């Protein structure tokens, strides 16, 4: 019989429980399931954790929490696999990783990109696990200092940084941001409850569903591109595939040289994860921007930069551990997935908060240790199965096109089991095509859609608290600091001239060339 953490069990016994065969099996199963949910567009980490919560009811509480943490971490990482191989980010958090990963794939370095992403994710997850284990209470207390003004300032910072990072034309970036913010106000007013831009459609009462929009913007255009490539291959009579530089895998020297980049990006992921309501979708944009700002060769970003890929992947996985900190220490979920954990803990009679550390220390430290094991498994699986993942490149494009379109439609429908979401997906695909023809970047639109509701809610709450006084944003030190960061980032971006043709993935959040939303087709080989 193994050690079972219950009330009063010591921290050491909780650690030993997480290292038992049953716990290791739960961690491995969670990671594998997370890889499935993260790699298929539409099947998000939130959906995966939510579907498996009932399964944990027949398990020990600690085992169930370890498995769910594996699903969470695995899904966040797996979204990058399809992003690198097919230019289809499996999760919103994988969008920045797709820019660099797919560029590397086009150069024939798919295995290098996959290996780098796996190790970077593992490093970020392990660092966040160490912080989760050692510093949960103090970091959670710091997160309590954030109020509506601070969240509003963070949203403005994110929108400005992303908008100025992608396009020299402020007009194009501004148009994309405006469109995204406009899409975010559809639905019920969060304060008054009045319907806005609903056009009499009950399905729009809750606003535009984020996942169908993202699928329409990123997945359906890729299905069309693959179909076009299949037609061209058929006409040419031979396949047009990118080269494959077999044997090129990341080295220890590469990660040693990027130690500061990995540490900084992981710290950003952990810090933003501790902030309630700031989900993992925002973190990679901020870490990517910071990495590019301090890079020795920023002109390489958007053209297959390993530094950029490391920054986004390490911050993504670090955000997972960070989001669990306020949940466990304060009972405040740091992301949508973490909110599902509340239901899982409640299902087992556990109430998240400070008392949980005194009443159930064994379960807590079993979870912390299990989270470290989860990230170690994720790293090992990612490295050892790099070449198996790359087999996707050998699938004929017409098969991939049908599969992408099918899974995209299923994913959009599965969110609310509604055909209306499928129409939203198709509408978003048409919008992406229209913006592509105007050379308007899609990435600012996506982030504006994600941050828009959060910005509106906290901006209005701040003004209500201050009775309409805008000085509240300057009177609070943290919000003032973020506003100063915003001005500095904007000023520096205007002074930094890009090289000719450099877009850094701007045109669709994935492409590398200034004239189109997608990279040009590879020549026949």
From TrEMBL:
PANTHER family hit by this protein: TRICARBOXYLIC TRANSPORT PROTEIN
A Pfam family the protein falls into: TctA
InterPro entries hit by this protein: DUF112_TM
Keyword field: Membrane, Transmembrane, Transmembrane helix
Region (Disordered): 501-525
Occurrences of domain DUF112 (ranges): 24-447
KW Magnesium (keyword) present: no
Transmembrane segments: 6-28, 35-59, 65-86, 112-136, 142-162, 169-188, 208-227, 324-350, 362-386, 398-416, 422-452, 473-492
Comp. bias regions, Basic and acidic residues: 515-525
Protein name per its UniProtKB record: C4-dicarboxylate ABC transporter permease
Domain of life: Bacteria
